[in-house]
Write a structure and sequence with these properties.
With 181 residues, the protein is mainly α. The chain has helices at 5-19, 24-47, 56-80, 102-118, 124-135, 141-145, 154-180. The protein folds into two domains: 5-84; 89-180, Orthogonal Bundle (Arc Repressor Mutant, subunit A). Helices cover 69% and strands 0% of the residues. The longest helix is centred in the C-terminal third of the chain and has 27 residues, at 154-180. The termini are far apart.
Length: 181
Amino acid sequence: MRRYHSLLTSAAIRVSRQRGRGAPDEIDDILQEIYLKVWADGAHILTSFRDPRPEAIFGYLKVTAMNIAHDFFRRRSALKRGAERTGSIEDLSHLPAASNDMDRQLTLSEIDRMLLAQTQKDNGPRDRAVFRLYYRYGLTAQAIADLPGIGLNSKGVEGVLHRLTKAIRLAMGGAQGMGAQ
């Protein structure tokens, strides 16, 4: 530990400054994670390393520590995004709307009926999810495209939104015109 502590600490500091706050508590958490991984399974990472050059272990440990530190931030970022709560796209229809106003709820249910009528093809569930995520929950096209299970880039998401918005506006215009007659 005496021999490699400064090497592991410098890796933790470097990655913390690149990807995090660089705060001492964050660096301590990263360093603890590095030690846990390095010493896991009877220090398998250290005992499995074979290189005849004595200085090679420093490079090996530095790269290993940096990778563990990057994994620390990836995992933390995934937890912030709710990776442990990832569900099906179909589950979005049960989420509450942003407002409890009665008129808004009636309008939203009317839009949902029109949306359902416009999305009866194979990609219907995905298209309805894209529409709801954008209009009800305020996600950007890029944020929607980044979600697992969507299978579209941001331009594809924008295309779906454009197509559905246009179809619903036409349907609402027709429904309003019929009510006036």
